[in-house]
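[Discussion] Sanity-checking designs against the backbone

I'm trying to build intuition for which residues belong where. Below is a structure token string of 223 positions. I'd appreciate it if someone posts a full sequence so I can compare it with mine line by line.
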């Protein structure tokens, strides 16, 4: 049976996304294929990070033991774990659970479309210029988006904001999925972001602050 590298698992509230503020179980898997300039979970991507090897059955049993129904599978980049499709299929079988995957936009979502019943919802980042990772984005992923999925633009400066608008318009993203603009914590003036959204009449776009960084210290883990 496959085992997955779990570096953190805990119950908290969702800090972002469609279910922001709602209770959720976080399963953080080790490793990432990108190296974003503003990464706040670099520790989880280090080669020597401590992890617990868990089978899909053990992960499911942990989830059920918490009594919480929302699951956020995150990283690192969770979709680069070997055998991840198997884990997603297992967790999707339980109709009482709602599975959300936070993915960095560089991994194809194509193979995950085979899950038709209670499919996972994807929150896909689009990494902009200030991340230094924009050339790794897989824009084919926009063709797989469903209305319950989310595209999140992590915005570090006004150039990023302009670029986000261009991508949203080019791929008509607001008609396909939820679209969020998420400021890099402490790097861009929030009032400027609101003015930009107003000036450009960005209907259907949501400005999102990372709740967990407001509630707890921005560096705090396990929350
Ligand atoms: S994709 Fe996410 S986890 Fe990976 S380096 Fe970028 S911010 Fe960090």
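Best answer:
Here's mine. Compare freely.
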């Amino acid at each position: 049976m496959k085992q997955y590298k779990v570096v953190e698992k805990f119950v908290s509230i969702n800090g972002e996304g469609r279910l922001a503020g709602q209770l959720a179980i976080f399963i953080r898997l080790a490793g990432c294929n990108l190296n974003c300039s503003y990464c706040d979970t670099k520790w989880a991507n280090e080669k020597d990070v401590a992890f617990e090897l868990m089978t899909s059955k053990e992960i499911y049993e942990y989830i059920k033991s918490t009594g919480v129904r929302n699951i956020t599978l995150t990283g690192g980049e969770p979709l680069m774990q070997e055998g991840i499709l198997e884990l997603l299929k297992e967790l999707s079988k339980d109709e009482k659970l709602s599975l959300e995957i936070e993915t960095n936009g560089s991994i194809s979502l194509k193979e995950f479309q085979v899950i038709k019943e209670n499919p996972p919802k994807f929150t896909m980042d689009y990494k902009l210029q200030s991340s230094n990772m924009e050339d790794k984005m897989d824009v084919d992923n926009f063709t797989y988006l469903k209305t319950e999925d989310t595209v999140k633009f992590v915005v570090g400066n006004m150039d990023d904001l302009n670029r986000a608008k261009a991508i949203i318009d080019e791929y008509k993203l607001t008609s396909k999925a939820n679209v969020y603009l998420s400021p890099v914590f402490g790097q861009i003036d929030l009032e400027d972001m609101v003015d930009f959204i107003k000036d450009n009449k960005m209907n259907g776009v949501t400005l999102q602050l990372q709740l967990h960084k407001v509630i707890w210290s921005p560096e705090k883990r396990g929350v």
